[in-house]
Amino acid sequence: MNNRFEADLQDLESRGRLRSLRSRSGIDFTSNDYLGLAESDELTRAAADAIARGVPVGSGGSRLLRGNHPEHEALEAEAAAYFGAETALYFSGGFTANHAVFSTLPQRGDLVIHDELVHASVHEGLRCGRADHVAVAHNDVDAFEAAIVRWRSTGGNGQPWLSVESLYSMDGDSPDIAGLMTVADRHGAMLVVDEAHATGVLGPQGRGLAAAFEGRENVITLHTCGKALGTAGGFILASRAIRDFLVNRARPFIFATAPSPLVAAVTRAALRISRTMPERRERLARLVAFAGDELRRQCNVAPSGSQILPVIIGADRAAVAVAASLQRRGFDIRAVRPPTVPEGTSRLRLALTLNVDEATVADLFAALAEDMRRAA
To answer: Average pLDDT in the 33-62 region?
Structure first.
């Protein structure tokens, strides 16, 4: 009975794409803990304080049953105020939040137009949803508008939805959000911006790259907590009508056990740190600038300009080999292969966090340059 699974695994291995779990080891150039909060003293104290005042670890049920805890509601109120939206709805993870949005909100007769590189969670939500959907070229504002025009010309009369990330997780680049907002306004579209990798890092007070448009009726944003904020979960920021519709119609919300109240309490502390301690973002920005200069100087690779630095290797096995060499040198670097990235673009995805310093970054790129020369 298991033969078909084993055959598939063997096929993955033959193409250099077999994945496996491994323990963390080496210097962190892989995690999304951009502000170094995940193991920080500040969040450790916040967890201890919450336990001391009786905040439970588990919720005990879905939020529509007994699982709705005051910490969830306090976190949502603080998140809405911080990000500048009318309301927030807290989910156990960003994947679940994205899945809820796209499986629930776009209706039959609508069209979702998404950047070809959006998160897998968007694709999974669309598979379960009612609306038609189409991918367009990466970071091409005109392509979004052209897709709406084509759809209308063939009889499409529902609502268009535009879906993008504000900072792409595998490329480290950003779209023209103001341009997309103009397209959305011109065509009566909803704009959904996944801020997962920008939350806490980019925009005013770390509020993301769509902060200027937060709170508008035709804007929905997703902010995750498991990256720069150092905890777990994800928020949907939207109007009250959209929030209430999700509470009543989103199966990933209705039928899921509520997130841990303890994690919600710690996330409140993470939001306060992001709001009141800009020095973490400033340190990261300096590290990003230094790393970009070193990557260009030592490896002749153009930097993305963000804390996500992709180094395209090309072939799957070559990317795995370079990553393995760097791991042996003590750097936690992972190869990213299709289907996570397009065919022929297997890469090292280097993430900069406050868990490293400039000297370590320089050492990494010296080792990378040597390995890339050897692999050429």
So the answer is: 98
**Within 13 Å of residue 216, how many CA atoms lie on the same side as its CB?**
17
69 is catalytic: no
State the architecture of 55-276 in CATH terms.
Answer: 3-Layer(aba) Sandwich (3.40)
Q: Decide if 72 is catalytic.
A: no
Tell whether pTM > 0.85.
yes
**Upper half-sphere CA count for residue 37 (Cβ side, 13 Å):** 31
Catalytic-labelled residue, pool 194, 195, 294, 332? 194
Residue 42 appears among annotated catalytic residues:
no
Residues of the chain with CATH 3.90.1150.10: 20-39+278-375
Give strand pairing partners of 234: 91, 224
Active site residue 62: no
Q: H helices then E strands: how many in the chain?
A: 13, 12
Instruction: Select which of 69, 227, 304, 332 is catalytic.
Output: 227
pLDDT at 376 over 80: no
The pLDDT of 111-121, averaged and rounded, is 97
The mean pLDDT value for 263-285 works out to 97
- Using alpha carbons, select from 237, 203, 233 the residue that is nearest to residue 219: 237
355 is catalytic: no
For residue 359, is pLDDT > 90?
A: yes
Residue 68 is among the residues annotated as catalytic for this protein = no
**Geometric angle at alpha carbon 94, from 248 and 169, rounded to 5°:** 145
- The second-level CATH assignment, the architecture, of 20-39+278-375 is Alpha-Beta Complex (3.90)
Catalytic residue of the set 165, 171, 195, 316: 165
Q: Does residue 227 have an active-site annotation?
A: yes
Annotated active-site residue in 92, 98, 169, 355? 169
Report pLDDT digits (tens) over 65-88.
999 999 999 999 999 999 999 999
